[in-house]
Amino acid sequence: MEQRAQTFAARQGFALDLTRKLGFGSDGTVWRTSLGTAIKVFERLRPYGAEKACYQRLRDLNITEILGFTVPQLESFDDELAVIEMTIVTPPYLLDFGKTYLDRAPDYSPEVIADDEAFRRELFDDDWPTVEQILDRLEAIGIYYVDARPGNITFD
Hints:
By secondary structure, the chain is an alpha+beta fold. It has helices spanning 2-12, 45-60, 110-124, 128-140, and strands at residues 16-24, 28-33, 37-42, 65-66, 69-70, 74-78, 83-87, 93-94, 101-102, 143-144, 153-154. Helices cover 35% and strands 28% of the residues.
C-alpha cells in the first residue's frame, strides 16, 4: 500500500509523509499530502469503487455538507492504483463511503436491518435522530450508507 501511495504522489506531483497516517481501517489507509489534502489507498477494489462513485455523486450534486456535517470533496483518483485524493474535513463530518451501496439498498433480511439499527441507535445514543436524518438524506440521492459509526459520523 505504501508503494502505491508513493506512486500516486509522484504521478500527482506532491510529497507524502508515510509516517503520518490520518487513519486506517479495513478498507485502506489514509495519509496527508503536502498539498493539505488526503489520499486513501484501498486494500480491495469493491470499496474503492463504491467510495469513488459516492464522491463523484456528491460532487455532481454540489453537496459539500449534509445537515451541517462536512463531506470530503474528491480531488483526484487513480483506478489502476485504487487511490482517492480528497479534501481533509474537521468535525462535524461524514466520511468513509467504502461500504456504501449506490442506487440500491443492500440485500439484508429484515432481522439484520433491525439488529443493525438497534446497534447503531445504541452507538449514537442521543445523537441517533440526527444520524438517522443524515442516512435518510443520503438515501434520497441513492447512497445507502451502512457504516454509520462515531468514527465516520463525527459530531463537534
